[in-house]
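Help needed: design a sequence for this.
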């Protein structure tokens, strides 16, 4: 025990500019990011597990309507909300995920429960049923409503295209957390409401193990935010781990190659947060900004939005 521990979080990447951000809104974003870091750090500082820390950090972000996850999730083409999330344990390589959920207040908590079951990935009505049967808080779909997301959806209506989570700027409002605890174990978690005006039960990378989330004690823990189709095709989270395992690269080196070379070549925009077993944190993105933060065992927290 008492190895170096650390936590990193994100609240989405994309075209995030000071010109389009009011002072009040920036203060609000920073406050929620800082609270998420503080709650996760408290767990790690008291000797708690990285899984507990990332779950708690993501729940704080899911409960805020500022992010496209949980309460502030975007609207699909039918005017409803479909949520997805995933979590992975670096010690055991166990993972749990939900996709297309409509009534789960905190999808990341249900993903954690699934991780410790015989399943890995549950979708749609089945995910909602599983959550209800196991006593997780159920909410009407209208709980996820926010005026901001409604206006985005109205702007996107009449278009055949799915939109990123802002009708003017390109923004990917996924949330996530990665951590290494005092025992040296890694964990990663990701949660999202997906793309504005999405159809056909579309799922992105956030709930797909290896694409939007991955954790392995021998390498790293990764949570992604970006245009899901490209992150799925690039198997981004696992690819970073593979470069570390097979080529002996550092976390930062591997992340830079995958995000700033491979994803750009593919056409993908977004970023990752990562941590390795030594407590090194990596926050890499190829967009104009990423809501992000990290905190080390001394409690030194850093929160940033722009590049």
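Sure. Designed sequence:
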């Amino acid at each position: 025990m008492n190895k170096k521990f650390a936590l990193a979080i994100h609240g989405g990447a994309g075209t995030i500019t000071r010109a389009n951000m009011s002072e009040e809104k920036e203060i609000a974003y920073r406050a929620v990011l800082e609270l998420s870091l503080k709650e996760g750090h408290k767990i790690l500082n008291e000797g708690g597990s990285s899984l507990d820390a990332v779950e708690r950090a993501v729940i704080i972000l899911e409960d805020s309507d500022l992010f496209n996850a949980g309460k502030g999730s975007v609207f699909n083409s039918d005017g409803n909300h479909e949520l997805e999330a995933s979590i992975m344990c670096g010690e055991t390589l166990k993972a749990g995920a939900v996709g297309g959920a409509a009534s789960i207040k905190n999808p990341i908590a249900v993903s954690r429960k699934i991780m410790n079951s015989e399943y890995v990935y549950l979708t749609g009505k089945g995910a909602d049923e599983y959550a209800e049967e196991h006593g997780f808080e159920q909410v009407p779909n209208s709980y996820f409503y926010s005026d901001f997301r409604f206006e985005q959806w109205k702007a996107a209506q009449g278009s055949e295209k799915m939109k990123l989570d802002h009708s003017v700027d390109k923004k990917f409002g996924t949330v996530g957390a990665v951590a290494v605890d005092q025992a040296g174990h890694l964990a990663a978690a990701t949660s999202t409401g997906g793309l504005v005006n999405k159809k056909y039960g579309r799922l992105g990378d956030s709930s797909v193990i290896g694409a939007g989330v991955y954790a392995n004690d021998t390498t790293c823990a990764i949570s992604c935010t970006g245009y899901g189709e490209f992150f799925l095709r690039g198997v981004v989270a696992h690819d970073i781990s593979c470069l570390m395992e097979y080529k002996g690269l550092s976390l930062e080196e591997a992340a830079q190659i995958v995000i700033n070379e491979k994803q750009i070549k593919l056409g993908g925009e977004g970023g990752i947060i990562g941590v390795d077993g030594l407590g090194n944190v990596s926050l890499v993105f190829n967009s104009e900004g990423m809501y992000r933060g990290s905190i080390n065992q001394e409690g030194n927290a850093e929160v940033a939005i722009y590049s």
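The helical segments are 23-45, 50-62, 107-115, 124-133, 147-156, 228-234, 236-247, 251-266.
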